[in-house]
Design a protein that fits this description.
Layout (H helix, E strand, L loop, with lengths): L17 H11 L9 H15 L9 H14 L17 H14 L4 H21 L9 H25 L5 H5 L1 H17 L1 H6 L1 E4 L5 E5 H33 L3 H4 L5 H21 L5 E5 L5 H11 L5 E5 L3
Antiparallel strand pairs: 1-2, 3-4
Length: 320
């Protein structure tokens, strides 16, 4: 049993190291949590909030509190505390990503198939990017629409263009077209979906969480890290799997079960994503930091005038 002084927000693992963050994200990206009903998630949130207020229900174990925090972190937005759309949660990346990516890798030969699955993928990505944005920077429906159309157009242009260009290229090159389209679209989709952070700046705080102002440079740093992480998340499955499939499809037994090639790729992509989702999220700290000396001159001067040299770094939620 635990006492009322239990700090439920204290990290279970060291967030300053990659391995510590990896354990953390393995915990909160657990895809089995998407199977739980909203009522169970709301119970977890209530327990977390009670613990924060120093009111732990009698008989509650530390294990129960850790599990409640796991559900809370996996399903509720860190900025607003609101329950996130199930499809947009990082815990849905494995089932959602494996189905869509497997289809993109399987149906890459014809233009209509490429167009359809790239559209499905960018619709999924747009929802994920919106769900995991920094909620302190609101975005209008019009901006969401522009971001979605721009990213989808980029992905389709890349995929269709490369698909036509690789008609005479080695078969393996054509299999890598979906990854090129996904990577290029991520470079557009995420910044566009989070454009308000870039235009108006993102809230930065001191190490105690006290807000110090808004920084555009901090927003660019955080979003750049997210773009890199998302591309890294997709890379192994979309680069290595085509090599595997090209080789095994030459065997007679695989030629007899062509109808299973799609499901096989979906399952193999899932195997990659089970590890790559938490690994990619762990590349950079969630609570990103930036030296005051690298901030915009006006914000830097504001902080120096109020705190002198007492504040050397600012902190902000980079989103996922």
């Amino acid at each position: 049993m635990v006492g009322t002084s239990f700090d439920i927000d204290a990290p279970r693992w060291d967030q300053t190291t990659f391995m510590g963050r990896l354990k953390h994200f393995f915990n909160i990206t657990d895809f089995t949590t998407v199977l739980l009903p909203d009522s169970r998630l709301d119970e977890a949130k209530a327990l977390v909030e009670s613990c924060r207020q120093g009111s732990v229900p009698p008989g509650t174990s530390e294990q129960q509190l850790h599990f409640a925090k796991k559900l809370y972190d996996s399903a509720f937005h860190p900025d607003t505390g609101d329950r996130m759309n199930i499809i947009g949660r990082m815990s849905f990346q494995v089932p959602g990503g494996m189905a869509i990516t497997g289809a993109m890798l399987q149906f890459y030969r014809t233009v209509p198939a490429v167009v359809f699955w790239q559209w499905v993928n960018q619709s999924f990505n747009a929802l994920v990017n919106y769900t995991n944005r920094n909620a302190a920077s609101p975005i209008t429906p019009k901006q969401i629409g522009v971001a979605y159309v721009t990213a989808t157009t980029t992905a389709l242009a890349t995929a269709v263009g490369l698909n036509l260009f690789t008609k005479k290229a080695p078969p393996l090159v054509a299999r890598w077209v979906p990854f090129a389209a996904v990577a290029s679209a991520n470079c557009v989709n995420i910044p566009m979906m989070r454009q308000q952070e870039i235009l108006n700046g993102i809230a930065v705080t001191d190490e105690n969480g006290k807000e110090l102002g808004h920084s555009k440079k901090a927003a660019v740093k955080g979003i750049s890290q997210v773009v890199f992480s998302r591309i890294t998340m997709a890379a192994p499955g979309m680069i290595i799997l085509p090599i595997i499939m090209q080789r095994v499809e030459k065997y007679k037994f695989m030629q007899k079960i062509t109808f299973l090639h799609g499901p096989i790729q979906v399952m193999l992509v899932g195997a990659f994503l089970v590890f790559m989702v938490p690994a990619a999220c762990s590349l950079f700290p969630q609570n990103c930091s930036m030296a005051v000396s690298k901030l915009e001159p006006e914000l830097r001067q504001s902080i120096r005038s109020r705190y002198g040299e007492g504040v050397q770094h600012v902190y902000f939620n980079k989103g996922l």
